Structure formats: structure tokens, C-alpha cells
Amino acid sequence: MFSDDADVFRVGGLYLRIVGPAYLCFGLGLGLFYVAQGFGRGTAAAIANATRLVVSASGGLVAIYWLNLGLAGFFAAVAIGFVLYAALLVWAVLRVKEPAAGPKAARGFTIPSSIITSATSNSSGEDNDYRNLRPGDAPTRDGPGGARRGDRRGGADLW
After folding, report:
1. Under a CB-based contact definition with an 8 Å cutoff, are residues 156 and 142 in contact?
2. What secondary structure letter does DSSP report for 40?
3. Neighbouring-strand partners of residue 157
4. pLDDT top residue among 102 and 80
5. How many domains does the chain have?
6. Does residue 118 lie in a domain region?
7. Cβ atoms 124, 142 nearer than 8 A
8. Residue 5 domain-assigned (yes or no)
9. Tell me: the pLDDT tens digits for 82-138?
10. pTM for the complete prediction?
């Protein structure tokens, strides 16, 4: 692509033959990386990514310097890193448990009933039921039955 040298084509072709199929695992792992984060397993996703990097780098060094496998060994180590990355993330996502039913499902956080009550009524004690608005009515901070109901002047309108 950037060179006409035959050695560049040879090395690139070797890389694609060895590592190319493993890019399916890398793509799967990349997608599952964000799924794991969405499930609150960001640490597992980061560990899987770090493991991929360590396996690829250390496996490549072992393949080149101890096993004398050259570039093919290094590329095989990169492919193994991709496959391990996907496997670790599949395992992390499959280990996610469904939260228990009930108000404590969101990590023990519950909304006090006083907040729910204050959010559904306005300062005059009247419910903020906007389902009863007629076309042309503008909701205001006083609610549908408030003193400024339908008043489109001033700063009280939400529009």
C-alpha cells in the first residue's frame, strides 16, 4: 500500500494469513468490552484488555527469542491474544447475574417516598397531572390548575 517492496508484501501477507481470522475475536471482544462496562463489569473488561496486551507482547518475545519462530511466531502470539481477549470478555459478560427483584435492585438505592410525593405535587399541594391539559394550554410551574394556567406571557411557561 505504501511500498512497492516485495518484503513488505510478504510480511503483510503473512500477518493477514495468521492474524486475520483472529480479528473476528478482536471485534467480538471489542463489542463485549462495552457490554461488560454497561453491565458494571468495567474492571473485568480492563483486565481482559490488559491480559491481551501482556499475552501478545510476552508471547511475541518468547516466540522470537526463545523459540526462534520469527515473525510467524510473533503474529501467532498476537492472534492468541485476540482469542484470549474475546474468551475473557465472553466469560465476564456471561457471569453477570440478573439483579434481585424489588426496590434494592439498584445496588441498595431506594427513592424515599417523601421525594416521590414532593415530585408529584406543586407548591400549592395540587397534583401536577398534565394529562388533563387541553390543546393550547401551556403547562406552568404552578401546574395545570395554577393561577397562570394557559398564560403565555412572562417567564413562568415551560415553552
Report:
1. yes
2. T
3. 140
4. 80
5. 1
6. no
7. yes
8. no
9. 999 999 999 988 887 776 555 555 555 565 555 555 555 555 555 555 555 566 665
10. 0.58
| Residue 69 counted as domain residue | yes
The helix-helix angle for 23-38 and 70-94 (nearest 10°) equals: 30
Cell, residue 24: 473476528
Render the burial of 25-43: b for 16+ CB within 10 Å, e for the rest: bbebbeebbeebeebebee
Give the max Cα distance, the chain.
86
Model confidence at 155, pLDDT cuts 50, 70, 90, reads very low
> Residue for cell digits 480479528?
23
Residue 101, CB-side half-sphere exposure with 13 Å CA sphere: 0
φ and ψ at 127, to 5 degrees? -65, 140
User: For residue 134, which amino acid is it?
Assistant: R
- What secondary structure letter does DSSP report for 66? I
For 30, the domain range is: 22-94
Q: How far is it, in rounded angstroms, from Cα 43 to Cα 31?
A: 15
pLDDT given for residue 133 in this prediction: 57
Residue 71, judged by CB atoms within 10 A of its CB (0-12, 13-18, 19+), counts as middle
